[in-house]
Specification:
85 residues; mainly alpha
């Protein structure tokens, strides 16, 4: 049941983010990123997008990892997507 709520929530953030790209009152990119992170727990395509973003914006990735190391966010069944090395 929790998986269904995460799925719906992830897609809701994606749709809201897409709307936010055209509406000035919504932070579209932020909602898209949140949606991708939620969906990456269950969908490989979302995980690939996050890895591409990490590679494209390494400085932002480092800052986010530094922030999360100080303020951990734990979601059962989800570990932050790591690059395959």
């Amino acid at each position: 049941m929790k998986g269904i709520f995460l799925e719906i929530g992830g897609w809701a953030f994606i749709v809201t983010g897409l709307g936010g790209l055209f509406l000035p009152i919504l932070p579209g990119l932020l909602f898209l990123l949140i949606g991708l992170v939620i969906l990456s727990a269950r969908h490989h395509w979302a995980r690939r997008w996050i890895i591409r973003l990490q590679e494209r914006f390494p400085q932002a990735d480092r800052q986010l990892r530094r922030f999360l190391s100080k303020h951990p966010i734990r979601i059962r069944g989800f570990d932050s997507p790591h690059r395959s090395e």
